[in-house]
Amino acid sequence: MEESIRIQSFEKLPSAKEFESMIEPRNVPAVFNGCIKDWKAFSKWNPSNGGLEYLQERVGSCVVEAMLSQSAPVFYGDLGRHERVPLPFSTFVEFCKQHVQNKEGRPGACFESESHGQPGSDSEHGYLHLEDAPQQIYLAQVPIMNFDNEERVQLGTLSKDIQTPESLETKALASINLWMNNAQSRSSTHYDPHHNLLCIVSGCKQVYLWPPSASPCLYPMPIYGEASNHSFVALENPDFSVYPRAEQSMEFSQKVVLHAGDALFIPEGWFHQVDSDDLTIAVNFWWQSNITSCMSAHMDTYYMRRILRRLTDKEMDQLLQKTRIAKKMKRANELPSNGQAGVGKEDSKEKNPRQKTILQELEPAAVHVLHELVSLVHTSVSVPNQDKPLLQSTSVTDFAAEMQDKCEKLVTAYLEDDPVAKLLWGTESHTLQNVFLAMAHNFPRTLETLVLHVLSPVGAEVLTQKFDEIDQQTAEGERRTFFEVFYSAFDDQSAAMDSILKGKELFALQAFKNVLDKYLGVNLESLNLKG
C-alpha cells in the first residue's frame, strides 16, 4: 500500500480551515475518533437507553422509503436487485424491537393479528408487516435534510438532534441522511460521486475501502448503466473464473472499524463496502468536492480526453511490464568467432568492405541478438529458397492491405506472448542499434520483413521506445546516420515508417479498450450498437 494513500486516524475533529487545507486535498479517507459524542442523538437515539422509544415518539408517524432486498443481509445498490418501498418509521422501529427480543430469547409480538386488514392499517396503504421478512429491510439514505430538494426530506425533525461538524461548516452540503438497520447487513461495494462524512451514532460498522486506482480489480458496472458506481464482484463469494482480477482486490483494500461516536471521511470515487452490526444507526453528510465544483462544463471533453490519454499511457506501460525481461542477455560464448551463427546469406544488396566487416566487429551479445532476431523472422515466414531474398519488397498496395487486415483483428498480443517483442524489450538500446545496422548492411530483406510483416503492435511499441532511447543516448550526427542506414534497407521508406506508427497505434488502441473495460465497464466487442 502506497504511503500517500494510507488512511490516517485523528483523535480530534479538525477545524474547517485545517480540514480544507490538510485533509480534503489529499483525497484519502480519514478517521475521527469520538468526534460526535456531544450530539444529542448520541445519547437520545441509543437503543440500550430507550432510543427506539424516543425515535418512535419523534418520527414514528413519518413514512420513509425503505430498501427491500431478497439478497439480505447483503444489500445491492443496483435497481435490479432491490426495491424501494414505503414504510411507516414506527413499523421499522417495531422490527428493531422484535429483533432485540428474539436475540434475548423473548418471543416477539404478532402485530399482524391486531392490524392486518383493518381500516387505516399499514396493509391498506400497501406498507410492510413483520411477517414480510423484516431482516430484508434496511433504511438506507433516508433524508434528514436535502438542500437541493426539500420535498424529499422524510425525517426533518431529527435534524435538531445532530449538528454539522465544525470541519464542514464552510461546505455547501448536498444532503444529510439516516442509515439504520435492525439486523446485521452489508452494503455492496460502490463509490459515491460526492465527498462523504459517515458518523456512527450507535452500534458498529466495519468499512473496507479501495482507492479509485483499484477499479480494474473491482469490475465497475458499465458507465452508461444506472448503477455505474457499483462493482460487479460479490466480494463475499467472488467468482474468480469470471472476474480474475478480483483476486488482487484485497491487496489494495484498507479496513476501518467505526464505533459509536466515530466518523469517517470517504472521498468521492473511493470504493467502499460497509458491514453493519445489529441495530446500527448512522448519519452521513454529502457535499461536492472542490475539484468537481470547479470543473467548467465547457471543459468536460478536454478533461475526459486528458484523463483517458493518461490512463491509456499507464495501461500501455502495464502491458509492457507484464513480464519482466532481464536487461542483460546471456553472452553467446558458443557462437562461432565470425559471429554469423548460421544467419544465412542474402544477396539482395551489394556490400562494400566496410559492410562486410561490420559483423566481425559486433560484440558477442549483439551477435546473439542478431542470430535470434533473424531466426525469428525466418521462422515467422515461408522461405521457399534460401538463395533468394527472404521476401520480395512489399508494394505500397500490399502494405496497405496488410495493415487493414491487422486493424480488423483484435490486438491481443502481450509481451510474454511475443518472442520478437520480448527480444527487443530485453536488449540494451545501444546493442540493438548495432544489430539493426548489421541487418541493414548485411540482411536488408530480413529487416524489411521484420518491420513490414513480422512486427506486432506490441513489438512496434517496444521498437519506438528503443528508438527514443537511442535518440537520448547518442550524439546528433551518429543518430542521423543510424536512422539513414536503418531506413535505407527499405525500397519504400514511407511504408516502413507507416507500418511502425500504425502498429504503435494499434497497441495504443488495445490499451484504450482495456481502459474502457477496466475503469468504465465498457467492452467494445460486446456492444452491438448500430449508428
Structure description:
This protein is of the alpha+beta class. It has helices at 16-23, 40-44, 51-59, 89-103, 112-115, 215-218, 290-293, 300-320, 353-361, 364-380, 396-408, 419-425, 429-442, 444-454, 457-473, 476-488, 493-520; strands spanning 8-10, 30-32, 63-68, 74-75, 83-88, 137-146, 173-181, 185-190, 195-202, 204-210, 254-259, 263-266, 271-276, 280-287. The strands form two sheets. It has a nine-stranded mixed sheet. A five-stranded mixed sheet has the order 4-8-13-10-11, with no helix packed on it. It starts with 7 loop residues before the first strand and ends in an 11-residue tail after the last helix. 34% of the residues are buried. The model is unreliable at 107-126, 323-357, 383-397 and 406-413 (pLDDT under 50).
List keywords for this structure.
16% strand, 17 helices, 531 residues, nine-stranded mixed beta sheet, alpha+beta, 14 strands, five-stranded mixed beta sheet
List the helices and strands and how they pair.
Layout: E1 8-10, H1 16-23, E2 30-32, H2 40-44, H3 51-59, E3 63-68, E4 74-75, E5 83-88, H4 89-103, H5 112-115, E6 137-146, E7 173-181, E8 185-190, E9 195-202, E10 204-210, H6 215-218, E11 254-259, E12 263-266, E13 271-276, E14 280-287, H7 290-293, H8 300-320, H9 353-361, H10 364-380, H11 396-408, H12 419-425, H13 429-442, H14 444-454, H15 457-473, H16 476-488, H17 493-520
Helix pairs in contact: 3-4, 8-17, 10-13, 10-14, 11-17, 12-15, 13-14, 13-15, 13-16, 15-17
